[in-house]
From TrEMBL:
Family: Belongs to the ROK (NagC/XylR) family.
GO molecular function: kinase activity
Transmembrane segments: none
Keywords, ordered alphabetically: Kinase, Transferase
Native organism: Saccharomonospora viridis (strain ATCC 15386 / DSM 43017 / JCM 3036 / CCUG 5913 / NBRC 12207 / NCIMB 9602 / P101)
Official protein name in the record: Transcriptional regulator/sugar kinase
InterPro entries: ATPase_NBD, ROK
Top-level taxon in the UniProt lineage: Bacteria
Length: 335
């Protein structure tokens, strides 16, 4: 029997469409139970307004569905979105990056596709992927801290993701009354010092020299630039304070650091471990580890949301995906 005929007679394999919606790009992928089949990136067009950017999300879902091989059939959609996200209601409460307010994402994507929709916060989705496939695999309690454009955490406690109406882990804002003005309307928020965006902005504000992101500031600090060194140290100091607070509140023994700034490696992690250790007395010092999924964590997390929505047994999928991540056999697994 010809091979093509054998395939033609096989039942179609289930697959999910996963979108990691960012303020600049939507990263999408199509995955079956063993790994990624197709992937792509689309500009979000957030500046064109909330309806347009949501239209881009629906168009991207259609693009991903059209990219599905004929041997596969879609069984679910997974979406990870930035901002204040209420997973239980399926609503994006507020996203500064996308301009969305009280947007019933699940209802609208379900109406558009007729497929079950899994929905989550981008940081919590990335954290779940790290927990199930990457740096946190096999650990019941961990806190994931994303240090990128902003600063946010995801709490996985007693094997459960803590959501609290979308506000759990919003550590980047509030808590102080003095300092630099913040986009949230407050002052001196941790995010105004301890984020990749803040590091670049604060260096330029002090020197008048434009830089190409936090990575550029770190390179200048290594070359002996005193301002770059101070800005970097300030960020690590504030991040250390935030991480120590998270350990004091949750008692976790493992902190996973993700987001763009983790690419700095030990230049970030070594002084961060020191700052955290200084601030703890009765608590055991947690292991502070870098995320391993990199920029793909949100997409992997969205794929898991899609499988959960489709009510398909996750255990064999988690095993296959974790193997793919470990062996780096999937293109872009650690991009
Ligand atoms: Zn703020």
């Amino acid at each position: 029997m010809p091979v093509s005929q054998t395939i033609g007679n096989s039942p179609p394999q289930p697959a999910v469409v996963a979108l990691d919606v960012g303020g600049t790009f939507v990263k999408w992928l199509v995955a079956d139970r063993t790994g990624v089949l197709r992937r792509g990136t689309t500009p979000t067009r957030a500046a064109d307004g909330p309806e347009r950017s949501f239209g881009v999300v629906l168009d991207t879902v259609d693009t991903a569905l059209a990219a599905l091989p004929s041997t596969h059939t879609p069984v679910g959609i997974g979406l990870a979105v930035p901002g204040t996200v209420d997973e239980r209601r399926g609503v994006c409460v507020y996203s500064e990056n996308l301009g969305w307010r009280e947007l019933p994402v699940v209802e609208r994507v379900l109406r558009h596709t007729g497929l079950p929709v899994g929905f989550g916060h981008d940081v919590r989705s990335a954290a779940t992927a790290e927990w199930r496939l990457g740096a946190g695999r096999g650990i019941a309690d961990q806190v994931y801290v994303s240090v990128g454009t902003g600063l946010a955490a995801a709490l996985l406690l007693d094997g459960r993701l803590v959501v609290s109406g979308g506000y759990a882990g919003e550590i980047g804002h509030g808590g102080t009354l003095e300092g630099e003005p913040c986009t949230c309307g407050g002052r001196g928020c941790a995010e105004t010092v301890a984020s990749a965006a803040a590091i670049a902005r604060r260096y330029t504000a002090s020197t008048g020299i434009p830089v190409d992101g936090a990575r550029d500031v770190l390179a200048r600090a290594r070359e002996g630039d005193a301002v770059a060194h101070r800005v970097w140290e300030d960020a690590v100091e504030v991040l250390g304070s935030v991480v120590a607070d998270l350990i004091r509140v949750t008692g976790v023994a493992r902190i996973v650091i993700g987001g763009g700034l983790v690419h700095a490696g030990e230049a970030l992690l070594t002084p961060l471990r020191d700052r955290v250790r200084e601030r703890l007395t009765v608590h055991p010092t947690a292991h502070i580890l870098p995320a391993v999924l990199g920029g793909a964590a949100g997409s992997w997390g969205a794929a898991l949301l899609g499988w959960e929505a489709a009510d398909i047994d996750l255990d064999p999928i988690l095993t296959a995906y974790a193997d793919a991540v470990r062996t780096r056999s999937e293109p872009g697994a650690a991009e």
